[in-house]
Amino acid sequence: MISAKNITKIFIVEDHPIFRKGLAQLINNEKDLTVCGEAEDTFNAFKGFEEKKPDLVIIDITLKDRSGIDLIKDSRIKFPNMPIIVLSMHDEKIYAERTLKAGAKGYVMKQEAPETIIKAIHHVLKGNIYVSDQIATRIFSMMLDGKSRIDSSPVDLLTDRELEVFELIGQGLGTRQVAYKLNISIKTVENHRVHIKEKLSLKSAIELVQRATLWVQKDQK
Fold first, then answer.
1. Would you say residue 147 lies in a domain?
2. Fewest beta carbons less than 10 Å away: which of 13, 19, 95, 124?
3. Strand partners, 12
4. Quick one: angle between helices 92-102 and 133-144, nearest 10?
5. Across residues 151-160, what is the average pLDDT?
6. Residue 11 sits in the same domain as residue 98
7. In a domain, 126, yes or no
8. Which of 74-88, 91-105, 136-150 has the lowest mean pLDDT?
9. Are residues 160 and 128 part of one domain?
10. pLDDT tens, position by position, 16-38
C-alpha cells in the first residue's frame, strides 16, 4: 500500500466541467496519483495553488478569464518549482514551443489516448520534458539549424498576445469584446490588429477576420 506522503497531488485547471471530471477520474484511478483541486479560471487556480500546494499542475490553454499561457508565466514566477503540463485541443505545432518557453514541462493534445497523459505526468515528475515525438524532432531540428523552422507557419511570427487576439478574432469577437476578454484597452487591441496584419501580409480588416476564422476552424479540427 502506498503511503499518503508518496502520493502525488495534482491540480487541474480546465474550463470544461465534463472533461475536467473525466480527467480527474483518470488520475484518481492511479494508485500513486490524486487530484487535490480543480479550477476553471486563473483566479481560482492561483487560490488553489496557494491552498493545496500541488506537486504538479495540468493546465488548458483556453480558460474562462485569461490565457493558460499567461497563467503558466505567472506561475513560474510565484511557484518556480511547480511543474506544469499543458493539456489542450490546440495544435501542438503552434502552441507546444510557446508553452515550453513560458515555463511548462510538457504538452499533450486532448485527442491523445488517456494513458498518454499518465505517461506524461510520470515523465515530468522525474524532471524530464514531455512532448510528442513530432515536436521533439521539430525542436531538435531547430537547435541544429536555428535559421529554419520545420513546417513553419506565418502565425509562428505572432507574439503570444497577438496569437491570443488573432484567435479571439477568429472566434467572432470584435475589438471591444477582445479588449474586455483580455482586460486590455481598445487601443491596445487595435495596435495588435495592425501588427498581426503586417506579419501575416494582410491588407484589410476583412482579410484579417477571414484568415483568423479559417485558422480557428483548422486548429479546432
1. no
2. 19
3. 38, 58
4. 70
5. 80
6. yes
7. yes
8. 136-150
9. no
10. 999 999 999 999 999 999 999 99
Helix, strand and coil content of the chain, in percent to the nearest 5, comes to: 55, 15, 30
Reduce the DSSP state of residue 3 to 3 states and report it.
coil
Cell of 186: 481598445
Q: Which long-range contacts (CB under 8 A, 24 or more apart) does 34-38 make?
A: 34/7, 34/8, 34/9, 34/10, 35/9, 35/10, 35/11, 36/9, 36/10, 36/11, 37/11, 37/12, 38/11, 38/12, 38/13, 38/14
Domain of residue 79, residue span:
4-142
Residue type, 151: D
The answer to whether residue 5 scores a pLDDT higher than 80 is no
Helical packing angle, 160-170 and 175-182, nearest 10°: 130
CATH number at residue 165: 1.10.10.10
* Residues 105, 11 share a domain: yes
User: What mean pLDDT is predicted for residues 66-80?
Assistant: 92
The answer to whether residues 44 and 106 belong to one domain is yes
What percentage of the chain has pLDDT greater than the value 70? 92
Say whether both 124 and 39 belong to one domain.
yes
Read off the pLDDT band of 66 (50, 70, 90). confident
Contact 98, 86 (CB under 8 A): no
Give a yes or no: residue 113 inside a domain: yes
Count of all residues that appear for the chain in the document: 221
